[in-house]
Design goal:
The chain is an alpha/beta fold and 120 residues long. It has one domain: Transcription Regulator spoIIAA (2-Layer Sandwich). Helices cover 39% and strands 24% of the residues. The chain has a 5-stranded mixed sheet with strand order 1-2-3-4-5. α1 runs parallel beside α2. The longest helix is centred in the middle third of the chain and has 16 residues. The radius of gyration is 13 Å and the shape is globular.
């Protein structure tokens, strides 16, 4: 059975140097390559990954989120995640990656939080 596609919308955030990747669909093994390409193609100082419309993430998807965090961190860039549903948040907790990430309840909260952090 084919996997539902992952739609990735990339746009400039309201603050210069901030970008947003809005994902729609499951972040699973079959959909990881387009996500990785979008992360690699993003040269903003701060990237917010909006997971509001991501119903679930498998182990490959989780690995791609960790890889995004690690690669951006090494490059001196920041990444935050927004809009995790309870299922995805539980995955982060069970796998103990939650403490690594900046996680916000909504995209608006992430924009505000990352803007405040950038000013500090």
């Amino acid at each position: 059975m084919p996997t539902e596609p992952l739609v990735i919308e990339k746009y400039e955030g309201p603050i210069p140097g901030h970008g947003v990747l809005r994902l729609k669909g499951p972040l699973v093994a079959e959909n990881v390559p387009p996500f990785q390409n979008a992360v690699r193609g993003d040269d903003t100082d701060t990237m917010i990954v909006d997971l509001t419309h991501v119903p679930y993430v498998d182990s490959a998807g989780l690995g791609s989120l960790v890889a995004a965090y690690v690669s951006r961190n090494k490059a001196g860039q920041r990444v935050a995640f927004a809009g995790l549903n309870p299922r995805v948040l539980k995955l982060f907790e069970v796998t103990r990656v939650e403490p690594l990430f900046l996680i916000f309840p909504t995209l608006a909260d992430a924009v505000t939080g990352m803007s405040t952090a950038a000013e500090a």
